[in-house]
Amino acid sequence: MREMRIEETKKTKITLTYDDYIKIAKTITYYFKEQEREGQAENGIKQSDVVNWFVQQNLDNIQSLEQADQLAKITHSVIQRLIAQEKVLIILRDDPDYKERILQLHPNHVESL
Predict the structure, then answer these.
(1) Which backbone phi and psi does 108 adopt, to 5 degrees?
(2) Which pLDDT score is estimated for 13?
(3) Which residues neighbour 82 within 8 Å (Cβ) at sequence distance 6 or greater?
(4) 12, 25, 58, 100 - which has most CB atoms within 10 Å?
(5) What are the CA-CA distances from residue 53 to residues 1, 12, 32, 66 (Å)?
(6) Quick one: which of 110, 29, 20, 101 has its CA closest to 61?
(7) Is 40 helix (H, G, I), strand (E, B) or coil?
(8) pLDDT tens track, the chain, 113 positions
(9) For 99, left (φ over 0), alpha (ψ -120 to 50), or beta?
């Protein structure tokens, strides 16, 4: 099974299987598409809102606060990769606090993951 390494901002490495990465990435892009369809993403979506939504979607699999924090870190790392490497998401408004930056699905995004 292939594994992907995603670097977190504090120089710790998160190892994620490729299948888990794809699952998270597709779920995040689905969320952006749904928000666009509902007219909720015209001005972008705050990154912390995306992370919180993803964690809430996985509450059944979380049994402690530490697991929730770890999932939030993984989600942030996947979002960062979707911005920097995959070019699936774009930053509409940057902020020194990455949780506050405003993101949007790239207008030319075609489902390829």
Answers:
(1) -100, 15
(2) 79
(3) 25, 28, 29, 88, 89
(4) 25
(5) 28, 24, 11, 17
(6) 20
(7) coil
(8) 566 655 544 567 788 999 999 999 999 999 999 999 998 888 999 999 999 999 999 999 999 999 999 999 999 999 999 999 999 999 999 999 989 999 999 988 776 55
(9) alpha
**How do the domains of the chain map onto residue ranges?**
3-105
Question: Which residue, 32, 43, 47, is CA-closest to 88?
Answer: 32
92, two tokens: 């509409």
Q: Which fold has domain 3-105?
A: Methane Monooxygenase Hydroxylase; Chain G, domain 1 (1.20.58)
Can you tell me the distance from the alpha carbon of 18 to that of 100, in angstroms, rounded to the nearest whole number? 27
> What six digits make up the tokens of 47?
């990154």
- 3: tokens are 């594994």
Q: What are the E-state strand segments in 18-86?
A: 45-46
